[in-house]
User: Which sequence fits this backbone?
């Protein structure tokens, strides 16, 4: 991430935020402060920001490799979620995305990853959040 964030002060703030202690309230109502060995909680505001920063690399590679023109594939991204609409070469596009994410030490959520025919099946995002 240091390569993506050129402002050293912002990068320093991010590192501090990742090390910030976690404050939890127990069942007894008392608050406890614990060290934070894992970074930021998944789904938290800061987690989304970090993922968005990292996925900017995917956006750049998509443009540099001209994936939209070569594979007729459109990347639509919102924070840590994205949809790819393509007219063919779906396996090739998926393989390329996995390679980029692996290099970023990220991975697709296999439970949420689907290849489907939009014209026949449409887009329904309720399955992303556990609803059918």
Assistant:
């Amino acid at each position: 991430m240091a390569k993506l964030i050129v402002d050293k002060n912002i990068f320093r703030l991010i590192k501090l935020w990742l090390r910030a202690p976690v404050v939890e309230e127990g069942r007894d109502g008392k608050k406890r402060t614990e060290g934070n060995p894992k970074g930021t909680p998944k789904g938290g505001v800061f987690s989304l920001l970090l993922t968005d920063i990292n996925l900017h690399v995917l956006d750049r590679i998509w443009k540099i490799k001209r994936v939209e023109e070569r594979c007729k594939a459109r990347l639509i991204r919102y924070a840590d979620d994205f949809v790819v609409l393509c007219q063919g070469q779906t396996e090739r596009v998926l393989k390329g995305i996995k390679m980029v994410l692996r290099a970023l030490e990220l991975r697709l959520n296999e439970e949420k990853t689907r290849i489907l025919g939009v014209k026949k099946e449409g887009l329904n995002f309720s399955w992303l959040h556990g609803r059918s």
